[in-house]
Amino acid sequence: MENVAPASFTDSDFERLDAWLQKRRGGIFDIVTLEGFLTAIVIGPNTISPMVWLPKVWGKGKPQFRDLEELNRFDSLVMGLYNEIVHHFELDPEIFEPSFYERPLNDKTVIIVDQWCAGFVKGMRVDTEGWKPLRHERRDLLKPIELFGTRAGWRKLEEGGEAAMHATWSVRIAPAVRSIHAYWLPYRNATQGPLGHIRH
User: Fold this and answer.
1) Angle (nearest 5°) at CA 61 between 50 and 86
2) Residue-wise pLDDT tens digits, 18-29
3) Whole-number mean pLDDT of the chain?
4) Which of 15, 60, 142, 173 is the most buried (most CB within 10 A)?
């Protein structure tokens, strides 16, 4: 990937991409899931070409766009979010925080983490073989993400009492993501160089 200075991905860009995704009939349907997906792509063991992972965003079959201009606008927004995530991890990985949904409930705010975690798991599955060393050596880092991002995890949440399990494990997601980045960093630096932005 070519190192270039990223254009800032604004709140307006975030909202436009989210609105566009929610109109889709396949692939990834919302911005939070997409952020989780792209985070796994960015911090994982291998550099994955957009030609490989973009079809996962579109969904099965050919992407449905009105014209080439709409396709290019969509690609630009997705790559903008990708580069924004790269920038966060280059600048200061320790301040990275996932974007979670919030829902009011009984005068409290409940943090909804499932979509982000499901997206991260989907991103890992783009390079299943590459993620195996982490799965074998530091499965603990994946536990909070897989609890909220997989069907097997959802069953465990239900068995353990969803409210109690959520309180215990949801706060561990962000530290786990930062630790996963740190785990793969020496490998990436040795084999592929630092994270790089994608020009779009």
Assistant:
1) 20
2) 888 888 777 898
3) 87
4) 173
